[in-house]
């Protein structure tokens, strides 16, 4: 089991992650979902020791990645498919990987077959690969030692529809065989079909976690659609009452029971034209609703932005593969 415990990361004055905690269980696919800049890549880099957290820790069955006796045998990582050396052939990249893991070179052919790269393609230099081929090579590299844990950042990036189906199946099969899978995406459809559990993050904070089904039930059960004579004033009054309201093309969609929305409108003497429970929102709609607030205060409840102690600032660089 992977456990992220109160992980925070600051880049200078910017907070990329704030107190992020979640778990990924064996036998399940966990989807880390969030819009661009939410902190997904930062979280994954911290998980595999490529970046140091400002606070908190991530463990694999109780052990931090960097303290695992042979991390490459336990955790298969695919973070940045573009990071492969462009001057090497795919076969060379995998052969070097196999050697460093103490694996026989026949494993190279096995993983090439597994990810659908032909022998001819494996002989080409990586710089000539399409994004989808690089992605497959990165996945092949992660699978070399047949690790129990897979951590993939945006694995469907660049894959064609059949490739996307293939990666979904691969991840689901891995979990079904007892493995632990964490994948990130900013595209909910990519994870909706394969993830058993979801961690929604925005602005570096966990917005919601749970099984996909529970989350969907929770998120959709309290949505209300409302239209009024003055939706701007109503949105302001709802926000002041602690509810999130967003324009939905007709009026507002609010994360509260209809009775609560009606009470706020009545208190402000705003006449309503429509008030109903929102019908069957999709997970995507709810995801956008949850992550649409750019103000940190609007997504995290008690989310005051703490002052940064200048002495704690880290001047990190941005080198791929560097601990930062
Ligand atoms: N090396 C760095 N230096 C400064 N800020 C950084 C650095 N790396 C990430 N950040 C910032 O941290 C925040 C989270 O970035 P991160 O790449 O983790 O998000 P993400 O969810 O993976 O986004 P995307 O979906 O676009 O890949 C962003 O505001 C980003 O600008």
TrEMBL record:
Query: What superkingdom does the record give?
Result: Bacteria
Against Gene3D superfamilies, the record matches this protein to:
P-loop containing nucleotide triphosphate hydrolases (3.40.50.300)
Print the keywords alphabetically.
Answer: ATP-binding, Nucleotide-binding, Transport
Domain ABC transporter as annotated: residue spans: 2-228
Region (Disordered), start-end ranges: 297-324
Q: Which InterPro entries match?
A: AAA+_ATPase, ABC_transporter-like_ATP-bd, P-loop_NTPase
Q: Name one GO molecular function term.
A: ATP binding
Q: Does the keyword Acyltransferase apply?
A: no
Q: Has UniProt tagged this entry with the keyword ATP-binding?
A: yes
| A Pfam family that the UniProt record links to this protein | ABC_tran
Q: Which family does it belong to?
A: Belongs to the ABC transporter superfamily.
What is the protein name given in its UniProt record? Answer: ATP-binding cassette domain-containing protein
